[in-house]
Amino acid sequence: MSTESTPRPEGHWIRDTVRLHWLGILIGILGIVIGIVGIVVAVAVTDQDTQYIADWPNHLDDIRKLIDRSERGDELLILVESIGYAHYSNPKDYDEYLSQLISKSAAPLDRRIPVKVLFLREEIFVSNLRVQFEQYRDKKNFKDLQQDKTFKTYVDHYIQKGWIKAPGPSSYKQLMEDLFTVSDKFCGQLKSNGVEMYAITSPQQISTTASDGSRAVLLSGEPLFFWMRFNEHKQKRNEVIFAFPKFSYGTKGHAFKSHDPKLLDELKQHFINEWDASKNSPSALSIKGNQCYLKSVDELVELAQR
Description:
By secondary structure, this protein is α+β, with helices and mostly antiparallel strands. Helices cover 47% and strands 15% of the residues. The chain folds into 2 domains: 9-47; 50-304, Endonuclease Chain A (Endonuclease, Chain A, 2-Layer Sandwich), CATH 3.30.870.10. Strand 5 (207-209) and strand 6 (215-217) form a beta hairpin. Mean pLDDT is 78; it is low at 1-5, 25-47 and 204-221.
């Protein structure tokens, strides 16, 4: 049997060229289709009412942007664990966040924006701090904490401001003293610049009907905190950032932003209910001047050591 190949018919190169031509066209069309699908998916993702933005506490920058976007006619409604929320983990950004709140609340009347803050009562706040720092009651664990980058940043920042004494806390008790002292100073700054603030017993469980009609519970176990820009007459620009801490699980929490009207309405109503109850409570009426808590710093430290 001959091993020579059968000669290809004359003109085969023309047919091959045509095939390659059409193959190139098909590949080009496929590329266009994939590109269009990618754009559609990207638009769908970025156009969602509710989006994940960051692990806790890296959402402070997003919160600051929300505050910066607020305009006359808006309200800033804030529900947090404490006035110093995230100041330990992110002191530099927290200072800028605090300055922004003051700049909105203390602005001239034609640009002033009401800032209302609800925070947890001291017993609940202290209980949450114990969960976060309980392990550092142990002296060995506290020495390990002193080598932690976040701890060092916190200590250096507030020593420079003159708010805590150098070289910084050397025990769990001293750390509690510093945390409460710094938080007390924040409270004084905000109140003296027109920010209204009241302590609540605890956030209630919050649920909402999502855009797809499903029912979602937003708060279970540890509290949900939020920062809302709300305008009764221009609701399309309303927005909220909400965050879930997860200290009791030993992990970082998550933060989300949303323009979902049902979620915003639910959180706004929750805030109003808590605001009205807290504003007229006996404890709120007993607090004088620029204080946030009935208990002194020493009493809070004692409570934290129980």
